[in-house]
Amino acid sequence: MSSSPPSAITETTEPVALTQVEGASSALHRPDGNAPDDLTRLSQLGFRGTAIPRHRAIRWLDRPGRRAIHSLAFALVAWLGVLASMQPVADAWSGMLGFWLERTMPGVQFVATSANLLSASLSEPRLGAASPTPAQWLNITATTTVLLLVTLLLPRRLLPLIYMLRLMAIVQLSASLFFLLAPASYPYAGGAHATTILRCGWASMLLLPWIFAFCYYPLEHGWTRHVALTLLGEVFFTLVTPLLAAWEVVLVHYGSLLLHPLLYLVFGPPLFVFWFICLYGWGMSWPDAPARKRAWS
Hints:
Layout: H1 18-26, H2 35-43, H3 64-84, H4 86-104, E1 109-112, E2 123-126, H5 134-150, H6 159-181, H7 190-215, H8 223-255, H9 260-265, H10 269-284
Antiparallel strand pairs: 1-2
Helix pairs in contact: 1-2, 3-7, 4-8, 5-6, 7-8, 7-10
């Protein structure tokens, strides 16, 4: 029994009659001006004569000017809304940071940072973190070395995890070598790390509408999905940023500045970039709305 080879392209709708194809090809010689429409229709047919739907990622090319204006206008409105919430968000973050640090680090003191046009004043904890003691250095270095050796025993199917653990181990061992040779020359303080994380979160909230304006809003998703993903992204950064800052401050306080390079280079600004990618991928995975509900139609 013979079987036809599977098609590499998913085709939809019913086959087009042969007479229709022949009639369209003869339209090239018609003076009535129907040839361009027929050619456009023929260019969308597969080798079986069935229509191949356009991918949603290139539908916005039909009206790029209109979509660009809509995307930038929506991003501007969202950005102004985030900017208007600057001081309430800063107050909420200072309160959440104080709530957790006062319970995990009794007696911690805070100092207000300076504000500017795009950033409100924040509460920065004053930490007594210093260079690691010999016991801290030995424990952290030994644990990191064991972790690096464990990656040699993990199965190959966990290769992404292996690479991530090795990267973390290399960063931490480099920090251990630095604090072994020149511990007094480390230029950063532990309390400033909390402010860095909070400012990264605030910058992410300000950048989110503009990034989506170039890679998400122009696509044919509809206003509902644009608003939903923007709000969910802003709420996510609002909630997770102070928790991340509090967690890392506690680690630096009890683990010394030896942990600061790892926290900054792996769990600092790069983590916010990773969250951006996750939000975009999650939004792109949402199922398409019915055509009648698409705002771009």
